[in-house]
Design a protein that fits this description.
With 137 residues, the chain is an alpha+beta fold. It has 2 domains: 42 residues, Single Sheet (N-terminal domain of TfIIb), CATH 2.20.25.10; 93 residues, 2-Layer Sandwich (GMP Synthetase, Chain A, domain 3). Helices cover 31% and strands 27% of the residues. The strands form 2 sheets. A 3-stranded antiparallel beta sheet has the order 1-2-3, with no helix packed on it. It starts with 8 loop residues before the first strand and ends with a strand.
Length: 137
């Protein structure tokens, strides 16, 4: 598969800095207080959550557009958790909370989320690797 676009970023660790090759993203990284850090910067889980939320929202809008459903006012919130995996490492979990416009029936909303979950690159990358819960709000 030939990439349509390749993002390039360099990081020095959880307590350091992450910078993209085009310098459009340049952030201070810090472990969250909950993990023994000072929380003075962002962290990989927050960056992953932002990316997944944006990507899923785009996939959802693409699917909705094909089905002629207006989701202009929809919002996706990604919650990314990190916890010990029992094998000496760590694992992630994700909950995607999607706020849909009031005029979208619950069944239609659920169908759109499930379809978006099949086309979103983040969903495809994580499928079978980490638990992802889809919640319609």
């Amino acid at each position: 598969m030939s990439a349509m676009y390749t993002a390039v970023a360099t990081a020095s660790g959880r307590d350091g800095r992450a910078v993209t090759s085009d310098k459009k993203l340049d952030v201070t990284l810090a472990r969250p207080k909950e993990m023994g850090g000072d929380g003075a910067g962002t962290n990989p889980e927050q960056l992953f959550a932002a990316g997944y939320a944006a990507c899923f929202a785009s996939a959802l809008n693409m699917i909705a557009g094909k089905k002629k459903v207006d989701l202009a006012d929809a919002a996706v919130t990604a919650e990314v958790g990190i916890s010990p995996n029992g094998a000496g490492g760590f694992g992630l979990s994700v909950t995607l909370r999607v706020e849909l416009p009031d005029d979208v029936p619950a069944e239609t909303g659920r169908e759109l989320l499930e379809a978006a979950h099949q086309v979103c690159p983040y969903s495809n990358a994580t499928r079978g690797n980490i638990p992802v819960e889809l919640v319609v709000e």
